[in-house]
Amino acid sequence: MNAPGLVLIFAVAVLYSTGFYLLLQRSLMRVVFGIVILGHAANLSLMLTDHAITLPPLLTGKDGPISDPLPQAMALTAIVITFGVTTFLLALAYRVWLGDDNDEVPADLEDRRIGRLSEPEDSS
Amino acid sequence: MLLPAILALHAAVAALLPLLADRFGARIFLLAGLPPAAAAVWALANASGILSGAPVTAGIAWAPALKIGLDFRVDGLSLAMTLLVSGVGAIIFGYCAAYFRADERGLGRLAAIMVLFAGSMLGVVTTDNLFALYVFWELTSITSFLLVGHEDHKEQARRAATQALVTTTGTGLLMLIGFIMLGTAAGDYSISGLVADPPEGGPWLTGALVLVLVGAFAKSAQVPLHFWLPAAMVAPTPVSAYLHAAAMVKGGVYLVARLAPGFAEAGVWQALVLSVGLATMIVGGWRALRQDDLKLLLAYGTVSQLGFLTLLGGAGTQVAATAMIGTLIAHGLFKSALFLSVGVIDHETGSRSISRLSGLGRRMPLLAAVATLAAASMAGLPPLIGFAAKEAALEAFVPGAAPSPPPVAAGAMLAGVALASVLTFAYSARFVWGAFAVKPTVAENRAGAPSPLFAAAPVVLAALSLVLGIAPALVDHLAQGYAHALPAGHKPYHLALWHGLTPTLLLTVLVVAAGVALFLKRRAVGRLQNAMPRWPDAEYGYHLFLHGVYTVALSVTRRSQSGSLPVYLGIILATILALPGVRLVAGLITGGIAVPGPEDGLRIWDSPLELLVATVIVVTSIATVREHRRFPSLILLNVVGFGTAGLFVLHGAPDLALTLVLVETLTTIILVFVLRRLPTTFSVRPDGWGKRLTVLLCTAAGSFIALALWLMTAARSGDPVSTGYADRAGEAGGTNLVNMILADFRALDTLGEVVVLVTAAVAVSSLVLLNRRDRVVDESSAEPAVPAPGNAGGTGEDPGPPGTGALALPVHTAGAEAVGGEPAERDPRRGPESDAADADAEAPEAPEAPEAPDESEGPAGGRRGDSEQGEDSDDER
């Protein structure tokens, strides 16, 4: 079997890296952007399983190898699901902004409180 | 297969009892006693067959591949335990019917859990599979926890219940590890197989045995894990009599006795079992001597007897095993009789404190006689079964009488057993004296004699002690059924009242004399006990341990849980790099993972166009990261999406490209709607090591995934599963294979996808529209009055209604000041740039934003835009 082209691999590497970086930001909107980019990266990863440039998987009677339809069907589903997730996250980010006046992910208050404890609260 | 059915009967009756509790009150215990009674009858019916050497077996497959099964095997030892657990259990259930009042809290629950406990305990003593044993074992721990904590409104009860649970299940987990180690070493998880053919010795076996023994010791309250048993005495007295005298605490002893035929030869076994048993026996007896509460006296006595049983069960000789079964039965009978007597006393007088009871012997002559009989059995006096058992126990450790243990150890054991017997005699006498004697310094209790049903249970149990004592051959028959599996002594030994003038009889006389002396000198003993330095308290150790666990947990939590989402995600990425990443690099270095070469189709690109599109994607995605203004960032994100669609086109996936373009467009539209309400820039983290580290981490993680994908794709050797799809799509009359897959081959998946989308749509609309309704309410409340600045600013959450012209202007100014001024102070985490944005916002009249010219700058401006523009956009939708 053929390995995919290096250019494609490089693009996927950059997409994953930038997606991860955005995911690690405090701004919810950038987190959403990160999810969108990671979605692209994942869909391209699915396409990597098919090798070389081929014809679309259409039964039109043309000669030549056609591309594998299965990863395409998966990627198609993934694109649509990513869309749903993105919209939902956006709505959440919007609500956060309505309440907090910014769209940042705050640190967890309970965790911070535990961080300040010097003695266990209940050791009976 | 009758045995599994009896177990199921326990569960069924337990499910039924809570429903009947309201109607029948405490009489439900008579129904609850049926399953244990059935088990006892079953055991008696099968006794002769089992004792003639044909164990009853039954099995229900559970997870055969993992060698886990509900296998049952009832041999001599299991038979003795079953008779004890179910026979004594049935009697105690009858007693409960008289003990509990109809208005007792949670009566149905209590009865149901007791039946469940009886069933679990029956499972423990009859199962032949290590895993099933563990499951039943933990079921007894859990039911015991619920029973000890029955009076859950008392803190003491909750505390004792938790303590018992933590001690027994914590060590139970260690035991499970030991079981697995034993099973893997032997390749067999059946107990009978393991004992018949024990695995080779060595450190592995030693470790396994230590772990198993720790579990058994905790269950049977051996020093230093004995502290939970006296604390568990807060349970109702019948529960204590059943769980903490007759049944559950015998679980550990049972396990020791069960494994002894296979492992008693192991060095660690002898050392641990004999030393722990000896220490427990003496510590328990010594502490029983100083208790004032009759129940606690019995509890420490139980600890002592359990040590005794462990010693006998673990010794691994025929005589010791005979003595062990004898003591097991004797203890089950006399200790539950004594507990039940204490229950009667407590019930009739309201106290069980030695310093408050006086003259009960006169008021309750029958009970006094019964309890004295049981105590005599405990003290080891003829003609009770306790005497026969104690004779056998002394005989077991006469130096030189049996091949093991070696004479010196046997001598030490014998001295220990004799000392413990003296203590036992003394606290037995103290019990009888404390409960029934007339004490000149204490006012006599006025109590009536208990009802016949109430007194029946102790009478039956004590009578059995006497009957079996006069005819010890019955117990001996049972004992030989287990003991024959162990190495024999120099001459056969049987439980009997009279063996002739033997050294052990002389020893018994000495023990009784010393015991009488100890009892008569009880004041001196009390002074001595008070003068002794307090030895390290095991319960204190338990609290220290718990506190340690909490402290470690706190410090781990404090270090590992910063509460910051980016840090958590970063840790996940770092883990990906640390585990599969390192493995991948190692594989590449050692050559374990093949790198595709030119012959495998190594190439730069598939077409020059691909290079162009990929370059666009790379450049724009990096630019998306570096861009801190929202709208340019969004546009760059868009280009990344369209670039990806371009790659799809190049790789023969037009359907994907079309869908992606559509989705990208929709996403962009929605993003614009949201983004124009938000500040125009993202907050920025200052440059520094943190940021550099993040970049490095993300780049490494992205590169790892891409590299792994490359190698995995190259390593693929099978044909795609979709090879035959083309033919079948032709049959179905379709031409577009991707469509065929989505709409035909995998239609159900697509339906699921549609459901996801619908769910997301519902969620999004509810999140967005919820806000709109709030605003409508605000408007209606603000409209009648002329909107004053203070009023608008006061609403806080939603500044001012959308007014017109001159009226609106002061409102907006006030709102902008109130809202825009705050975040800069409130949120110091935000970077300098967003502070600047906030500062801009304080002058809301300055129009600055090129991307959204309709709105003024900053959060405050955005907010005001919400009330003005949001209205329009909502209407548009």
Helical residue percent of chain A? 55-70%
What share of residues are in beta strands of chain A?
Answer: under 5%
Estimate percent helicity of chain B: over 70%
Write down the secondary-structure element order of chain A. Answer: HHHH
Known CATH architecture of the domain at 6-53 and 68-102 in chain A: Orthogonal Bundle
* Overall pLDDT score of chain B: 83
Average residue pLDDT of chain A: 83
The neighbouring-strand order within the major sheet of chain B is 1-2
Count up the helices of chain B.
36
Largest interface: A-B, 98 and 125 residues
Largest sheet of chain A: none
- Please state the CA-atom Rg of chain A, rounded to the nearest Å: 22 Å
Low-confidence stretches of chain A: none
Q: Pairing-aware structural class of the strands and helices of chain A?
A: mainly alpha
